[in-house]
Amino acid sequence: MIKKGAVTANTAVVKRRTFTREFKVQVIREIEAGKTQAQVAREYQITDNTISKWRRDLRQYKERAFAGRGHAYTDEARVNELERMVGRLTMENDFLKKLLAKLETES
Questions:
Q1: How far does Cα 37 stand from its chain's mean position?
Q2: Tens-place pLDDT, residues 22-68
Q3: Exposure b/e, 30-53, CB count within 10 A at least 16 = b
Q4: Distance (Å, rounded) from C-alpha 78 to C-alpha 72?
Q5: What string of DSSP letters covers 8-42?
């Protein structure tokens, strides 16, 4: 129920654009080929900040950049992955030490 004199706004849901890895690399290559960043931004209707972020990500992560839908591969993710691996290997190592000790006492 709308009160008398209340202002209502029609808000449209704006869907965020998504760009493929190939598109992002193409944009960066055009800049490296000599076009200005502003010129490329106007041509593709993308903000300068977005292109700057893409360039920074590509420099920092090389082939791992633009891995998926907004889930950039970060150093933090790599650290977490390695910590899980260290934990698993530590558990395996402890198990094998106990097994070896048990086999040595039996013989």
A1: 22
A2: 999 999 999 999 999 999 999 999 999 999 999 998 998 888 788 77
A3: bbeeeeebeebbeeeebeeeebee
A4: 11
A5: ----PPPPPP---HHHHHHHHHHHHTT--HHHHHH
Question: What per-residue string of b and e applies to 86-105 under the rule 16 or more CB within 10 Å gives b?
Answer: eeeeeeeeeeeeeeeeeeee
Q: How far is CA 29 from CA 2, 5, 16, 20, 55, in A?
A: 53, 55, 24, 14, 10
Fold designation for 18-73: Arc Repressor Mutant, subunit A (1.10.10)
The pTM of the full predicted model, rounded to 2 decimals, is: 0.55
